[in-house]
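Input structure tokens:
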């Protein structure tokens, strides 16, 4: 119904939709449901699966961009300026590391693997934020996705945990830089969800099981959970929240110790 959504009249540019399991899909649907006009940028190899999804939400701006390239970032935002004018919301739902760096030991991470993970998973937020800023003259909301492995050692998350730590610090520094322009920058720290990116982490199934066992809510997190929180963080209701990492994790992060159920009771 027009006039009812918390994002009515807003335009969102979303990076990182690849298929219907993507966190960006849960986010896109929620932003659209709340009244935002949605626009997309994708990694070229993902076009086939993502384009019909984007079109199903009425998107007409659907443009490729490899975030490793400053030229491609420049080109996609130049086109966004021409076709969308201004934007209110930027979603960064992108991460990448080599498969070989998400198994085995962290100590074996190569220089190239380390730099690649940081380039695509952390620097890209800075690159996109800098390009988005001129399109947000009235302020805006920038949102990225992170994971608990940034703070605590999660087996096999390895170099991605270190890149997420950099991403979370990047959120804080960007929030400080952009605050006076009314641009808020936040992250959602999501519990594990089976997606394409997650399938690169060896033993990911174990994450899901151990997470649901230990989290206070005893359930896994869905892309709809992430989407609903994303819509809130990008809405006027979150107007005083910036530089924050908000957990959407069934409460997992508050627990200090894993104790088997039987011994906890006696
Ligand atoms: P996904 O594979 O659906 O999304 C990752 C996206 O990154 C893809 O759309 C891919 O095209 C894009 N990407 C990778 N390299 C790129 C490049 N060079 N240029 C442009 N785009 C590129 O998986 P996802 O799980 O939805 O991941 C989205 C975000 O959520 C990531 O930051 C991920 O770390 C984060 N996250 C995921 C989980 C989880 O368990 N799935 C938990 C917490 C946080």
């Amino acid at each position: 119904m027009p006039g009812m959504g918390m994002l009515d009249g807003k335009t969102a540019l979303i990076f990182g939709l690849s298929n219907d399991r993507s966190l960006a899909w849960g986010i896109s649907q929620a932003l659209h449901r709340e009244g935002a006009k949605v626009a997309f940028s994708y990694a070229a190899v993902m076009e086939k699966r993502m384009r019909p999804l984007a079109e199903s939400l009425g998107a007409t701006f659907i443009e490729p961009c490899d975030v490793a390239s400053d030229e491609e970032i420049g080109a996609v935002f130049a086109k966004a300026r021409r076709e969308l004018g201004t934007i209110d919301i930027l979603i960064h739902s992108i991460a990448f590391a080599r498969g070989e760096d998400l198994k085995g030991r962290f100590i074996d991470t190569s220089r190239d693997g380390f730099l690649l993970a940081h380039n695509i998973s952390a620097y890209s937020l800075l690159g996109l934020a800098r390009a988005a800023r001129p399109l947000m003259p009235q302020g805006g909301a920038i949102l990225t996705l992170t994971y608990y492995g940034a703070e605590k050692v999660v087996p096999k998350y390895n170099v991605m945990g270190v890149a997420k730590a950099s991403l979370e610090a990047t959120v804080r520094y960007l929030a400080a830089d952009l605050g006076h322009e009314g641009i808020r920058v936040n992250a959602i720290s999501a519990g594990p969800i089976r997606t394409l990116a997650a399938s690169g982490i060896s033993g990911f199934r174990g994450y899901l099981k151990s997470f649901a066992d230990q989290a206070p809510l005893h359930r896994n997190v869905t892309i709809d959970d992430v989407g609903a929180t994303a819509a809130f963080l990008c809405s006027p209701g979150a107007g005083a929240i910036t530089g924050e990492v908000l957990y959407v994790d069934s409460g997992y992060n508050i627990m200090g110790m894993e104790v088997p159920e039987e011994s906890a009771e006696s």
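Strands lie at 11-15, 37-42, 62-64, 89-92, 140-146, 183-190, 245-248. Helices lie at 23-33, 47-56, 70-84, 111-132, 158-178, 204-214, 223-233, 261-265.
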